[in-house]
Specification:
By secondary structure, the chain is α+β, with helices and mostly antiparallel strands. The protein has one domain: Gcn5-related N-acetyltransferase (GNAT) (Aminopeptidase), CATH 3.40.630. 30% of the residues lie in helices and 26% in strands. The strands form two sheets. The protein has a five-stranded antiparallel β-sheet, with helices on both faces. It has a three-stranded antiparallel β-sheet with strand order 6-8-7. Helix 1 packs across helix 3.
């Protein structure tokens, strides 16, 4: 598939580019990433370069994983990343520390969910390592239903920490659901 650009009232979601490698590297060195994300650790520039030059373009070309850079304006600096995997139909995201708490991620995830459902997805899964309250807040605000706690689907290394899981069906309303961990 040819990559698409998505827009919201405040954001432009386009493709991560080589000019984003320094910011991706900086943001992914945040100690929060070591505990809550599947990104390599320690995170090095070569990881960002591989992500931008191989993972993202091949994901689009093979209709496997659609990844967007989140920006405030076209050509603007990277704020974070959101991706939608085709099989098993999941969503993942991260935001650079300086941009957290402003509602950007909820806005970006909502437009990606709309796009995925318009393209025919029937279900989108979400997961985060237990304790990642920021990720859970985004999923809850986007209407995901909490489905329980079990090991994370993919992780670096041999161990797999426990994760919170949720799902959103195409015909679900997007209202916040009860039953989320405190």
């Amino acid at each position: 598939m040819i990559p698409v650009v998505l827009r919201t009232e405040r954001l432009v979601l386009d493709q991560p580019a080589e000019r984003d490698i320094p910011l991706i590297t900086e943001y992914c060195r945040d100690p929060v990433f070591e505990h809550y994300l599947t990104t390599p650790w320690p995170y090095e520039e070569q990881h960002a370069r591989g992500f931008v030059t191989a993972f993202v373009p091949s994901g689009w070309a093979e209709d496997r994983e659609y990844t967007w850079a989140i920006r405030e304006a076209e050509g603007g600096p990277l704020l974070g990343v959101v991706g939608n995997g085709v099989a098993p139909g999941g969503i993942g995201f991260w935001l650079g520390a300086p941009h957290r708490g402003m509602g950007y991620m909820t806005e970006a995830v909502r437009v990606v969910l709309d796009w995925a459902f318009e393209r025919g997805a029937s279900r989108i899964a979400w997961e985060c390592v237990v304790g990642n309250h920021a990720s859970a807040a985004v999923a809850r605000k986007c209407g995901f239903r909490y489905t329980g706690e079990r090991p994370v689907g993919a992780w670096r290394g041999a161990s797999r920490p426990l994760a919170w899981h949720g799902e959103l069906l195409a015909d679900d309303d997007r209202a916040e659901k009860d039953g989320w961990p405190a």
